[in-house]
Write a structure and sequence with these properties.
Layout lengths: L13 H8 L6 H9 L8 H12 L10 H5 L6 H17 L14 H12 L6 E7 L5 E9 L9 H11 L3 E7 L9 H17 L2 E8 L4 E3 L9
Parallel strand pairs: 3-4
Antiparallel strand pairs: 1-2, 1-3, 4-5
Helix pairs in contact: 2-3
């Protein structure tokens, strides 16, 4: 039978230790145990925390855990998995140099790169985003439009421009990742970009750039003179 946290000495309980000594003085398993909240008949919250840490080979790899992996651990159900994933995402956003694009004036590609490199760094599939801008090039919103192997038949211009009309956008910046890390545009990337640029001129919603995110670097169609403003 596992030793429940409530049966521990008060000085050994993670929450009480956090209050007395501060979060930075707790171990990885103690911090994770607080997120888990309580154990089950087999394991205490701290035991479950250790199971998770062993599963991902340490706290530095927690951001690689997903919902299915977490809930495969006996004792980690939906609510606990969601608590952990939410905390991981908050940590990622706190450490992101650009935490929120909304309202930011996109006057250089570096801002796009800094924001999306964190969002896309662990993605194993290509994700296609559109960033929608007002007449002053301030971000209205961004939207994930497709996830999978990028090709024209799946990244349909109708979805790109439909959202632009809904939010009253005057311009668009397209963003997608290459999980391989190689930022060289594919033939499909070039075809999609050219098509969106042409349709944007027709619809009055200008495509300002298409940014490909790789491993710690990016490719900008605008910076490489493949799109002209």
């Amino acid at each position: 039978m596992a030793v429940k946290i409530k049966d521990m000495s008060i000085l050994d309980r993670p929450r009480e230790r956090l209050i007395k000594y501060g979060a930075k003085n707790l171990s990885d398993s103690e911090l994770l145990a607080i997120l888990i909240g309580s154990g089950n008949n087999k394991n205490s919250a701290k035991d479950l925390a250790n199971l998770i840490l062993n599963k991902c080979d340490g706290a530095s790899n927690l951001d690689k855990m997903n919902y299915n992996t977490l809930t495969s651990i006996d004792g980690i159900k939906e609510s606990r998995a969601c608590n952990i994933l939410a905390a991981i995402e908050l940590s990622r956003r706190i450490n992101n140099n650009v935490r929120d694009l909304n309202g930011i004036k996109l006057n250089n590609v570096e801002l796009v790169f800094q924001y999306y490199k964190e969002i896309l760094k662990d993605e194993k599939q290509e994700c296609f985003y559109c960033v929608y801008l007002d007449v002053t090039k301030k971000v209205i919103c961004d939207k994930l439009l497709f996830k999978g192997t990028l090709n024209y038949s799946l990244v349909h211009p109708r979805e790109v421009f439909k959202e632009a009309f809904l939010v009253g956008a005057s311009a668009i910046v397209c963003v997608h990742n290459h999980p391989s890390g190689n930022i060289k545009p594919s033939v499909q990337d070039i075809e999609i970009t050219n098509n969106l640029v042409e349709l944007g001129l027709i619809h009055g919603v200008k495509v300002l750039d298409h940014v490909i995110i790789g491993e710690n670097t990016y490719y900008s169609f605008l910076e490489n003179n493949k799109i002209s403003l």
